[in-house]
Amino acid sequence: DAKTTQPTSMDCAEGRAANLPCNHSTISGNEYVYWYRQIHSQGPQYIIHGLKNNETNEMASLIITEDRKSSTLILPHATLRDTAVYYCIVRVDSDDYKLSFGAGTTVTVRA
Amino acid sequence: DVKVTQSSRYLVKRTGEKVFLECVQDMDHENMFWYRQDPGLGLRLIYFSYDVKMKEKGDIPEGYSVSREKKERFSLILESASTNQTSMYLCASSGAWGTDTQYFGPGTRLTVL
Fold first, then answer.
1. d(CA A100, CA A60)
2. What is the β-pairing status of strands B103-104 and B4-6?
3. Residue numbers of A between 11 and 50 with CB closer than 8 Å to B
4. A38: closest CA among B73, B106, B49?
């Protein structure tokens, strides 16, 4: 699976949009981009994933660049409960099912 | 709404005890996973199961065994708990395909004294 690079940390004001970047310059054509988050002492929570097109669900939007070398997760109206570590990963459809998280981005939403 | 539940959120056991961690999913998923998560080491796969009674070793199976007698339930067994098994244990489940989303339970923080 391709490696991803994320900023170590970022702050966001409550009520504002949070834009979380992820670089995956070595991504292959059949690799999906996934985002998870993990609130302190809880299990990881799936947020969203995509292959080529931009995606939106009730939690967030995922914008993937045309060359697929980077993506941005957008939390449209951040709340204090969005404070968490956010992980961007890329995965290929193969027999290797295991997930592997990097260090992620620690997002702190401030009132 | 998808749901993966784990039997305990916090557990304290003594060295040498046999420990059972249970995980139940209600999504009719084929695949179930046990990971452990430790600071600085990230997420590591212990075992996974792709069907009832079927299992595959992950990266760190030593000291652990698993059981999957029913599709919805996947148990992790520490045969003889040791202090280096103190960790956060995470269960996940997914559909049959490699890129199917894995959904996690809330985690069990196990302390072995």
1. 21
2. unpaired
3. 32, 34, 41-46, 49
4. B106
DSSP class per residue in A29-51:
TTEEEEEEEE-TTS--EEEEEES
Closest residue of chain B to A32, computed from CA coordinates: B99
- Which of B43, B98, B101 faces A95 most closely, judged by CB atoms? B98
Residues of A with Cβ-Cβ distance to B91 under 8 angstroms: 43
Q: What does the alpha-carbon distance between residue A69 and residue A96 come to, in Å, rounded to a whole number?
A: 22
Residue carrying the six token digits 């620690």: A106
Over residues A47-92, the pLDDT tens digits come to: 999 999 899 999 999 999 999 999 999 999 999 999 999 999 988 7
Copy the structure tokens of residue A56.
């939106």
DSSP state of B29: -
Measured distance CA(B23)–CA(B67) in Å, rounded: 11
Which residue from B minimizes the CA distance to A97?
Answer: B98
Radius of gyration over every alpha carbon of chain A, rounded to an integer in angstroms: 13
Using a CB-CB cut-off of 8 Å, the residues of chain A touching B105 are: 43
